[in-house]
Specification:
elongated; eight-stranded antiparallel β-barrel; 10 helices; Alpha-Beta Plaits
C-alpha cells in the first residue's frame, strides 16, 4: 500500500459534551426546605426529558453522574446531533435555578469517532491502482462514497445511546508527538497494525464494559476522549491496566485526568443534593 496518504479516514457521529461541576452545599443548606423542593422540581423537569433517546434511535440523551473524589461533585454527559444541540442543552441547564449552586470545574467537547484504518488502506491502494491523483476531484468523490457507505453501515455505533450502566469512567488522551516517539510520523500500515492489536484487548472486555471513543482534535485540549461504562468499576482498572502493556499505550499514549462517576437518574437528584446516594 502506498503511504503517500498517511491520514486514515474517520467517521463522525454524535457530538458529546461532558460538564463537570462542584455543588455549593453550604449555600444549599442555607435555604429553606420549600425553596429547595422547588429548585429540585425545576431541575427534574429539565433533566428527565433529556434522559430519553429520540424516537428515530439517534442519540438525543443526557445522563447525570455523581463524581467520586475531589475533581467535582456532578458530571453531566450530553450526546446530541450537533455542536449547536449540545450547546442548547448546556444553555437550557444554565437557566434553571439549580445552576446558581453549581460551579463548573471542567468540560470536554468531542464527537463520536470511528477510525477506518483497514478501509483506508484498501481504498487508498485501489485508488492508486486506478492512478487517481490524491486529492483530485475524482479521488475526493470516491472517498466521499466510502465515507457515506460506511457511515450508513455504522450508524448505531456513530449515534449511540448512553449506556444504562451504573458507573462511568471518562478520560482524555493524546498520542505522543515528541522528538523520540511521534505517532504521526509512523507509516500508516504500522499504525494500523498497532491499533488492531490494541483493539483486540478491548474486545475481550466487550461483555462487561461499553467503550465510546470520541475525537476532540480541534475541539478541546486533548486529541481523544474515552468513555467506559460498566456495572462493576473494577473493570475500568483491569481493562486500562492491561492496555498499558500494549504498544500503543506503552509507547505512544499520554493520559489526562480520570473521572469516575455513579449514575443518578433525574428523578433522584433531590436525594443526591441532600447528601444521599440513591
Amino acid at each position: 500500500m502506498p503511504d503517500t496518504i498517511p491520514v486514515p479516514l474517520t467517521l463522525e457521529g454524535s457530538t458529546v459534551l461532558h460538564q463537570m461541576c462542584r455543588f455549593d452545599r453550604s449555600a444549599w443548606l442555607q435555604i429553606d426546605n420549600w425553596h429547595r423542593e422547588r429548585i429540585v422540581g425545576e431541575a427534574m423537569a429539565a433533566l428527565q426529558p433529556m434522559e430519553t433517546a429520540s424516537k428515530d434511535g439517534r442519540a438525543i440523551a443526557s445522563a447525570l453522574y455523581s463524581l467520586v473524589g475531589h475533581k467535582g461533585d456532578l458530571m453531566l454527559v450530553h450526546f446530541r446531533q450537533s455542536v449547536e444541540d449540545v450547546h442548547r442543552a448546556e444553555l437550557a441547564l444554565a437557566h434553571i435555578e439549580l445552576s446558581g449552586y453549581l460551579q463548573s470545574t471542567h468540560s470536554y467537547l468531542s464527537v463520536v469517532e470511528l477510525g477506518l484504518y483497514e478501509s483506508s488502506a484498501k481504498t487508498y491502494a485501489q485508488l492508486a491502482e486506478q492512478k487517481l491523483e490524491p486529492h483530485s476531484p475524482e479521488w475526493q468523490a470516491r472517498i466521499r462514497e466510502v465515507i457515506e457507505r460506511q457511515t450508513s453501515a455504522m450508524a448505531p455505533r456513530l449515534f449511540p445511546e448512553i449506556p444504562p450502566a451504573k458507573y462511568i469512567c471518562f478520560y482524555p488522551m493524546d498520542r505522543r508527538r515528541g522528538e523520540a516517539k511521534n505517532w504521526y510520523q509512523e507509516p500508516m500500515a504500522e499504525r494500523q497494525r498497532m491499533m488492531h492489536d490494541h483493539g483486540m484487548i478491548g474486545r475481550r472486555y466487550a461483555d462487561s464494559v461499553k467503550q465510546i471513543i470520541t475525537g476532540s482534535i480541534g475541539f478541546d485540549d486533548w486529541e481523544w476522549g474515552v468513555d467506559l461504562f460498566a456495572d462493576d468499576p473494577l473493570i475500568f482498572k483491569k481493562l486500562i491496566y492491561e492496555m498499558r502493556f500494549d504498544e500503543v499505550s506503552a509507547v505512544y499514549a499520554l493520559f489526562g485526568s480520570f473521572y469516575v462517576g455513579i449514575r443518578v437518574r433525574a428523578g433522584d437528584i433531590g436525594r443526591l443534593l441532600n447528601g444521599e446516594l440513591p
